[in-house]
Design a protein that fits this description.
Number of strands: 8
CATH architecture: Alpha-Beta Barrel
Radius of gyration: 19 Å
Shape: globular
Mean pLDDT: 89
Low-confidence stretches: none
CATH topology: Aconitase, domain 4
Length: about 200
């Protein structure tokens, strides 16, 4: 269970790099936990800290101007590489509620949707404009399937219907089934009573 996602207005954090893979999002050495809590501290760890563990001054993720921004605008082919649920867990624990790109890897997209992080794929032209505007306020309306930035940017996006329903309800697929356990048990009982 997570906070229902209907509409989000936030500033953006921009990472222009293409092909950001899941090992860059959450390095493999931090995959030893099955808990989501605390993973945000390791999101993009090697981009945020040097080898001695000191914060990098040039990191676009930790500046005070990005504090509280909940939308990550990333380069194309975001979330490529190996499947790891820890990647959306780390991004969500860091404070992101949505990732916007022109191309998001399918396996990352699937993992994100199951964990309350909205992947938003938009057209390349709009995406390029957003990459040039870090910090800009944008609004993502999941019910309408539209992203807006000021009066000059509007892009449509789609989300698979079941995943969209779960996000709107603040649920994951397992929670969706658990919420319907009485109906499932009733159906099973009726089937057992039915003549063969």
């Amino acid at each position: 269970m997570f906070e229902p996602f209907r509409q989000l207005t936030s500033g953006t954090v921009v990472l222009k790099q293409a092909n950001i893979d899941t090992d860059q999002i959450i390095p493999a050495r931090y995959l030893t936990t099955t808990s989501r809590e605390g993973l945000g501290a390791h999101a993009f760890h090697d981009w945020r800290y040097d080898e001695a563990g000191a914060p990098r001054e040039d990191s676009p993720l930790d500046g005070p101007e990005h504090k509280g921004h909940e939308i990550l605008v990333a380069g194309p082919n975001f979330g490529c590489g190996s499947s790891r649920e820890h990647a959306p867990w780390a991004l969500a624990d860091f404070g992101f509620r949505a990732v916007v790109s022109s191309d998001i890897a399918d396996i990352f997209k699937s993992n994100a949707l199951k964990n309350g992080l909205l992947p938003v794929e938009i057209d390349a032209e709009t995406h390029a404009r957003l990459l040039e505007r870090p910090g800009r306020q944008i609004t993502i309306d999941l019910e309408e399937g539209v992203l807006r930035c000021g009066n000059d940017i509007e892009a449509r996006f789609t989300v698979e219907p079941f995943a969209k329903k779960c996000l709107l309800e603040g649920n994951d697929p397992l929670g969706f089934l658990t919420d319907r356990m009485d109906a499932i048990q009733s159906y099973e009982t009726d089937r057992q009573k039915a003549p063969a």
